Amino acid sequence: MVSETHPTASIFLLVAASLFLVVYALPLLIAPLRWARVFLWKVPAETDLTVYLGRCLGAVAVAICAICFRAAPAPEHHVALFEVILVAGALLTLVHIWGALRRVQPWTEHVEIALYAALTGVDAWVLSTLS
């Protein structure tokens, strides 16, 4: 399951996808409001849109994680996946910075700034090893 020619890229995909799947993707897909409460969000009275958007984001995240698992044995053939992770990670970092600057998110989301920035940086480095 780990590439002999690009083991770092394979391990990155397996570890990042596993952690993201368990901590974000599946909880958002299955129980978005419970996930929000764990991350200290105040849940609004009207929740239909919140649940819908949470599940949509969770579905996209699960799909990306599944593709990461599929790509891990031969990451050099899936460079576009690393580019998707790079762009998504950078945009998620910016979204969380914007929320922090506006003071509209709980402190747990501020921690995610560092996590998304680190993910993006590691992904950029791994991507550079595939070129």
Which key features would you list for this structure?
single chain, 131 residues, mainly alpha, 5 helices, globular
Describe the protein in words:
With 131 residues, the protein is mostly helical. The chain has one domain. 79% of the residues lie in helices and 0% in strands. The protein contains 5 helices and no strands. It has helices at residues 7-30, 32-38, 48-71, 79-102, 107-130. Helix 1 (7-30) packs across helix 2 (32-38) and helix 4 packs antiparallel against helix 5. The mean pLDDT is 96.
Short account of what is shown:
This protein has helices spanning 7-30, 32-38, 48-71, 79-102, 107-130. It has 131 residues and is mostly helical. The chain contains five helices and no strands.
Number of individual domains: 1
Strand content: under 5%
The number of distinct β-strands equals 0
Report the average pLDDT across residues: 96
Characterize the main sheet. Answer: none
